[in-house]
Amino acid sequence: MKLLVIIAHGSRLESSNKEIHNLAEKLKINNIDNNLKITYAFLELCEPSINKSIKDEIINGCNEIEVFPYFLAAGKHVKDDIPKEIDKLKEEYPNIKFKILPHLGSCKEIVSLIFSQLQDKD
């Protein structure tokens, strides 16, 4: 089974963390692939951690993990911290396939998304 993990920074504000939980729930509701599980994790400041989220799903049968960094810019977290966390898991689970997807800010649809917010919503 394949797993999509949405990875966000994590915040001291519970409302911010709840937004990531809600995003994952919306993705689950709209998921049409029965072979795809969806979850989320936080890099720091709160739970679930990347390590815990992924290990829990490996135990539940996921053997192909795709990680989506929910970050706008390719800073230290995207370039170093997330890959380091995934590298540790790769060592621990050599039979599991891991892939880090491009971060949110690099998605070509981001331009259309931003312009779509300018349209009159009334």
Report on the structure:
By secondary structure, the chain is of the alpha/beta class. Helices cover 42% and strands 20% of the residues. The protein is built from four helices and four strands; from the N terminus they run E-H-E-H-E-H-E-H. The protein has helices at residues 14-30, 50-59, 76-92, 110-116; strands at residues 2-8, 36-42, 64-69, 97-100. A four-stranded parallel β-sheet has the order 2-1-3-4, sandwiched between helices. The N and C termini lie far apart (43 Å). Keywords: Lyase, Metal-binding. This is Cobalamin biosynthesis protein CbiX.
What's the Cα radius of gyration? 15 Å
CATH C-level label? Alpha Beta
Secondary-structure class: alpha/beta
CATH architecture: 3-Layer(aba) Sandwich
Q: Any key phrases for this structure?
A:
single chain, 122 residues, alpha/beta, Rossmann fold, 42% helix, CbiX-like, metal-binding, lyase, Cobalamin biosynthesis protein CbiX, Sirohydro_Cobaltochel/CbiX
Could you give a quick summary of the protein structure above?
The protein has about 120 residues and is an alpha/beta fold. It has four helices and four strands; from the N terminus they run βαβαβαβα.
